[in-house]
Amino acid sequence: MAVDGLRREARAAEVPQADIGQVIGKSRQTVNVKFRSGDMRLTEFVNIAQSLGISPHKVLERAEKNAALADKKVA
Asked: Domain range for residue 57?
């Protein structure tokens, strides 16, 4: 969920995946796969968040809150 939140932040900021790829030293296609799968290294996550001007902590915090809300809806 945190990677999905990071993807949404990047889209909202209108930052192309090619630009994100340059930040982490990967291709646009690799960035796309990482966002779709929700699987990336912590260092990549932190570097992307910081390049977007967002605290990685805030992205994780939002993901945790969203997960808690989803759990309440299921219960």
From this structure: 2-74
